[in-house]
Design brief:
Elements lengths: L2 E13 L15 E13 L8 H20 L6 H15 L16 E2 L3 E7 L3 E5 L3 H4 L1 E2 L35
Helix pairs in contact: 1-2
Length: about 170
């Protein structure tokens, strides 16, 4: 069984779609939406491993910064927005706790699966569903620290020039 916490919030954004079909040509100009974002972030225990309120308080400002720098006034689709904010969530909440079995033997930890839904005005949009094959195993040091303690105060936001390889997503924080 897999478990996920769910965090939702809205952000105002302005974007455009330069190659919009003629029937919806008005989308070629900047237009405003209330983007509804929903994150489903995998957790590995049923002991409130990630606290909903704390997750939202970390994720919402990071996404607002992403919107301010990567979405507003740009040709950014819901699909691109979903990819960008998914990367933010993966970086903010990198993985679950490691279980230690007998005498220091560790079970592998996996990068959290993060599913993202981005809707324009709550009506239409896109959903990205993370895949186990992509997440892959990570062997990491055991830590009793709360995962939220590992979240940096200064958020690193991916930029258009960010060409990190998939293997970099699996490096230890």
């Amino acid at each position: 069984m897999e478990q996920y916490i769910i965090v939702k919030f809205e952000l105002e954004g302005v974007h455009h779609y330069p190659s919009a079909p003629e029937a919806v040509g008005f989308l070629r100009s900047n237009h405003r939406h209330m983007f509804h974002l929903e994150f489903r972030i995998q957790v590995f225990t049923n002991e409130r491993e990630l606290e909903f309120v704390q997750v939202k308080h970390k994720l919402a400002p990071a996404c607002a910064h992403y919107f301010a720098t990567q979405v507003n006034g740009h040709s950014t689709s819901c699909e691109k927005i979903a990819e960008g904010v998914r990367k933010l969530a993966i970086n903010l909440f990198p993985r679950g706790k490691i279980q230690v079995v007998a005498k220091g033997e560790k079970l592998p930890s996996y990068r959290r699966l993060v599913h993202v839904k981005v809707m324009e005005d709550g009506e239409s949009g896109v959903q990205l569903v993370d895949q186990k094959e992509v997440a892959g195993p990570i062997i990491a040091k055991t830590s009793d620290r709360d995962p939220l303690d590992r979240i940096p105060e200064a958020v690193t936001v991916p930029t258009k020039g960010d060409k990190k390889e998939a293997k970099d997503e699996h490096e230890e924080v």
